[in-house]
Write a structure and sequence with these properties.
The protein is of the alpha/beta class and 232 residues long. The protein contains nine helices and six strands, in the order αααβααβααβαββαβ. The protein is globular. The relative contact order is 0.16. It binds zinc ion.
C-alpha cells in the first residue's frame, strides 16, 4: 500500500513531473533523478573488477595509485551524456549524488575493491564554483560516501590557478599550467591514509595527475581514483 504522502506525490507529479536526467521520462515516486530503465541500461564499465582496465592503463607511469576505475562509459548522444549535461549545466547536482550512490552499491558488492579512508573530490576553481553554485564532483563524492560510509574531505585539495585561459597556450604550456592548478593546504590529516579522488569525466587524465602531484610526498599515503564517466 502506498502512503498518503506517496499518493499525493504521484498526483503532484502529474502536474509537475520530475524528469529522468538520462532520458527525460517522468519519474515515479519511488525513483530518484534517474529512472529504472536508465539504471538498467547504463553502460557500466565494471573497471573496479579489473586492475588493468583502460582507465588504469592510461594513468600507469604518471603517478602511483592503488586502484582506478570509472562507473560508466561516456558516449555521444547517450544517457550518460544527458546525465552529465544535467549535472554540470542544468543545475541538477542530485543527479551526481544519485550516480555516486549507484556506483557505491556496485563497489560494496565487490570482493576486490578496497574501501578508502577518505574521499576527496577534485575541486572547481572558485569562479566556476560561483557560476555553477556547486561542485559536481563533490556531489558525486557525497553520493559515494553515503553508501560507503566514508567521510568526504573537500578541503584537502584546493584549486590555485584558473585554467580557463589555457586554450590560448601551447600544448606544453597547457600541461605546465594545469600542473600548478592544485595544492594541498594541510597534509597532516592525510598521513597513512588511503584516499579516493573523485572526478566527473576522465578524458586525458591531466586533472587527476596534477591532483596527485599536489599530494606527493605525504608519508604512507595511498591514492585511488574514481571518475563517474570514462571517454572511450
Ligand atoms: Zn530514464
Amino acid at each position: 500500500m502506498k502512503s498518503l504522502a506517496n499518493l499525493l506525490q504521484d498526483l503532484l507529479s502529474l502536474f509537475f513531473p520530475e524528469l529522468c536526467a538520462g532520458c527525460g521520462a517522468s519519474l515515479f515516486s519511488n525513483e530518484r533523478e534517474i529512472c529504472t530503465s536508465c539504471i538498467y541500461h547504463l553502460p557500466v564499465t565494471n573497471f573496479h573488477k579489473d586492475p588493468s582496465n583502460e582507465l588504469a592503463k592510461q594513468l600507469w607511469g604518471r603517478f602511483n595509485f592503488k586502484q582506478a576505475s570509472s562507473f560508466v562509459f561516456f558516449r555521444k548522444g547517450g544517457r550518460v551524456q544527458n546525465i552529465i549535461h544535467q549535472l554540470k549545466y542544468n543545475k541538477r547536482p542530485k543527479a551526481g549524488f544519485r550516480m555516486g550512490e549507484l556506483y557505491a552499491i556496485a563497489l560494496n558488492n565487490s570482493e576486490t575493491w578496497q574501501k578508502p579512508d577518505l574521499i576527496i573530490p577534485v575541486p572547481l576553481h572558485p569562479s566556476r564554483l560561483r557560476q555553477r553554485g556547486y561542485n559536481q564532483s563533490e556531489r558525486i563524492a557525497e553520493g559515494l560516501a553515503s553508501v560507503l560510509q566514508v567521510p568526504v574531505a573537500p578541503g584537502s585539495l584546493v584549486r590555485t590557478e584558473n585554467t580557463q585561459t589555457q586554450t590560448k597556450r601551447s600544448r606544453f604550456g597547457r600541461y605546465e599550467n594545469l600542473r600548478d592548478a592544485f595544492s594541498c593546504p594541510d597534509k597532516k590529516p592525510l598521513v597513512n591514509k588511503h584516499v579516493l579522488i573523485v572526478d566527473d569525466v576522465m578524458t586525458t587524465g591531466a586533472t587527476l595527475e596534477s591532483c596527485c602531484l599536489a599530494l606527493a610526498g605525504i608519508d604512507g599515503l595511498s591514492i585511488s581514483i574514481i571518475t563517474l564517466a570514462f571517454t572511450e
